[in-house]
Amino acid sequence: MGQTDRPRQRQSQRKETKTVADTVTGALRDVAFSCSASLFGTACFKDCEDLVPRSIPFSIRDLPYSVSVGFRLSDPVMDGLVDRPTRTYQYHYRQVNLLIDHTLLRMLGKLHELGYEGFPVPSSQIVDWEAGTGHLAHKVVASVAGLGWLGRNNLLVSPLYGARVRYGSLFTNAPLRLTAQVRETPGRPGAAGRSECGSCFACVSACPAGAIGKSRADFDLEKCRQTLKNFERSENIGSMICGLCVKACRGAKRRS
Question: Is 230 a member of any domain?
Fold first, then answer.
C-alpha cells in the first residue's frame, strides 16, 4: 500500500468507528427512554481515571466508557416534604432506585447482544458504612456526561429538573458517541470549583443541618450525615435520606 493510501485507510477506520459508536449509543438511549428515563448522557474516563475511586471492582482501562441515566422524581412527592423526610418520599426514593437498576440491567443486556461487556453500578448500594459511600458518586459520572453541574448543595443540578433527579451509571468497553467533554479545573467534575447555581441559594435556607454554604467547598458532609442518621431514627424510615435540599432545587429553567 502506498503512502497516499494510508490517510484514506485511517479516515475509513475513523468513519467505521464513528458508525459503531453511533449505533451502540443509539441502542442504549432507546433502552433508557423505553424505561422512562428523563436524561441520558455518555462520557469517557480514559483521561480522568482519578475521578473514579480505586476501590471500584473493575478497571477503567477495561471499561473506559460510561452511560449516565437520570430519572426525574415526582414533583407532588417532593412538594409534600415540609421539614423532614416522609414515608411517601422514602418509598418513592426506593422505587426509583429499583427502576434505575432495572434500566441498567436492560442496557447491559443490549450490550451483550451487540458483543460488548459492561458493569452496571448499583444505584444506591453502600460499600463503606463508616463513610456512607457507594462504589462511586453517580453525580460525578452525570457531570462528566454533561447532564448538569455540581451545585453548592453537593448534588448534581440539572438545568431542566434541578436536583430532583436520581442517577445511575453503566461502564462499558463499547465505543460510545460522547455527549460532553471533561471540564477543566476549577469547574471539573469532582473538584470543589465554581458551579452554575448563580444567585440561587434556595437549598441553603432549606437545609435542616445548616450544611450548605455559599460554595460547594463550604459543604459540611459531617453535618449532613448526622442529620440523615437522626432522621432515620426519629422518623423510623430505615433509610438515611432527607430530601429537603432536593426539593428546594428546581433547576434554572423552572425557577419562579
Answer: yes
d(CA 130, CA 108): 31
Return the sign of the alpha-carbon dihedral for residues 84, 87, 88, 90.
Answer: positive
Angle between helices 5-34 and 87-113 (to 10 degrees): 140
Residue 50: active-site member = no
Task: Evaluate whether residue 165 is within a structural domain.
Answer: yes
Task: Decide if 253 is inside a domain.
Answer: no
Closest CA to 242 of 219, 209, 197: 209
**Model confidence pLDDT, tens digit, residues 191-237:** 434 468 889 999 999 999 999 999 889 999 999 999 999 999 998 88
State which H helix or E strand residue 167 sits in.
strand 165-172
Total domains present in the chain: 1
**Cα–Cα distance measured from residue 236 to residue 247, given in angstroms and rounded to the nearest whole number:** 21
- Alpha-carbon gap, residue 234 to 228, rounded angstroms: 10
Give the structural domain span for 145.
Answer: 5-248
C-alpha cell of residue 103? 434500566
In a domain, residue 102? The reply is: yes
Q: Which of 44, 37, 106 is nearest to 72 (CA)?
A: 37
Kindly report, residue by residue over 77-127, the tens digit of the pLDDT. 999 999 999 999 999 999 999 999 999 999 999 999 999 999 999 998 766
Closest Cα partner for 231 from 86, 75, 82?
86
**Catalytic entry in 75, 128, 218, 220:** 128
Cβ-in-10-Å burial (0-12, 13-18, 19+) of 9 comes to: exposed
